[in-house]
Design goal:
Elements (H helix, E strand, L loop, with lengths): L5 E7 L3 H12 L3 E8 L6 H14 L7 E3 L13 H4 L21 H10 L5 E5 L4 H9 L7 E7 L14 H4 L2 H8 L5 E4 L1 H4 L6 H8 L4 H21 L9 H8 L4 E6 L1 E3 L10 E3 L11 E7 L1 H12 L4
Parallel strand pairs: 1-2, 1-4, 2-3, 4-5, 5-6, 6-10
Antiparallel strand pairs: 7-10, 8-9
This protein binds calcium ion.
Length: about 325
């Protein structure tokens, strides 16, 4: 592995697991966080933007623009995940007034500006619905060739979580996901098949809380609420920590096994709207358009998260 820092834009809808993704991206020595864009998803844009500023303040984010993007999906009616993330979208901890302010630019324009000014070396890391990325691709198609790759949390080749067929981020804006999966750039997909291996158990939370720094304590507070709702809705004893797997892949892909697959988003199915149809066995003969994560090295992943959060003082 080289020592090169990977430039990323984190596009998120915080969200408990998005918050942890930002904690990792802000401080990991292999990650060079160039911008944070916010999208409606787990909650309305007003709330996800506020949450992004709260977490940005908590992790001491400085000199990195945070911009609010799309407030609605492209075609479908809006769906949110307040059953999982609460009324604020980040229920649990109590935040003061944020010290980080929103960049005046629209999130879509921030994505376009950063990519057009780059040497094609920025990885997009979306951890919410793909509305911002899709609109950026349509508004300025020249960005496509400048995207190094897209490492996203979304979809599933097995079971969904918002419907039996679909995962929340894709279901919340299937048409946007279609734009992204057909954009022609390399995609790494962290679907539910992978993220359900990243179960944030009580010993994991205790180990991280014991780090004692304010970010580690915030992690523990977030996970206490997240554990409760994931148990109520899905019966999980420990919640899957979906979004941080994206940042972990960028920092250390050896934590994961991936499999090339052709991924297509279902846009017309009555019961399957928003499903990522992943051609696991290559039966369509369509070439792969994504590396789909299939296996997580669980102990090393939690070491990665713990060691990264230990970098905070
Ligand atoms: Ca998210």
């Amino acid at each position: 592995m080289t020592n090169r820092r990977e430039k990323i834009i984190l596009d998120m809808d915080p969200g408990h697991d998005d918050a942890v993704a930002l904690m990792l991206a802000r401080i990991h020595p292999r990650i060079d966080l160039r911008g944070v864009t916010v999208v409606a998803g787990n909650q309305t844009l007003e709330k996800t933007a506020r949450n992004a500023l709260n977490v940005a303040t908590a992790v001491g984010l400085k000199g990195v623009p945070v911009a609010a993007g799309m407030s609605r999906p492209l075609v479908r009616e809006q769906v949110i995940a307040d059953d999982i993330h609460g009324v604020t979208g980040l229920d649990g901890p109590v935040f003061g007034e944020p010290e980080v302010a929103l960049d005046p630019r629209h999130g879509v324009d921030l994505i376009i500006d950063l990519l057009m000014a780059s040497d094609g070396d920025i990885t997009l890391v979306p951890t919410g619905p793909l509305t911002n990325v899709a609109v950026a691709l349509r508004k300025e198609p020249r960005i496509a060739e400048r995207i190094r790759r897209i490492v996203l949390m979304g979809g599933a080749y097995q079971l969904g979580n918002i419907t039996p067929a679909a995962e929340f981020n894709i279901y919340a804006d299937p048409e946007a996901a279609h734009v992204v999966f057909t954009c022609g750039r390399p995609i790494v997909m962290m679907g539910l098949d992978l993220t359900r291996q990243a179960l944030c158990t009580r010993p994991v939370v205790q180990r991280i809380r014991a780090l004692g720094n304010p970010v580690a304590v915030l992690f523990a507070e977030l996970m206490e609420f997240f554990t409760k709702t994931q148990k109520e809705v899905f019966g999980w004893e420990a919640p899957p920590l979906h979004d941080p797997t994206t940042v972990a892949w960028v920092a250390d892909p050896t934590l994961f096994e991936t499999k090339p697959m052709h991924v297509e988003v279902e846009l017309r199915g009555e019961k399957t709207y928003g499903r990522t149809c992943c051609d696991f066995y290559g039966i369509t003969g369509n070439g792969a358009n994504a590396e789909v994560a299939v296996k997580l090295d669980v102990p090393r992943f939690w070491d990665f998260v713990t060691e990264t959060l230990a970098l905070y003082s």
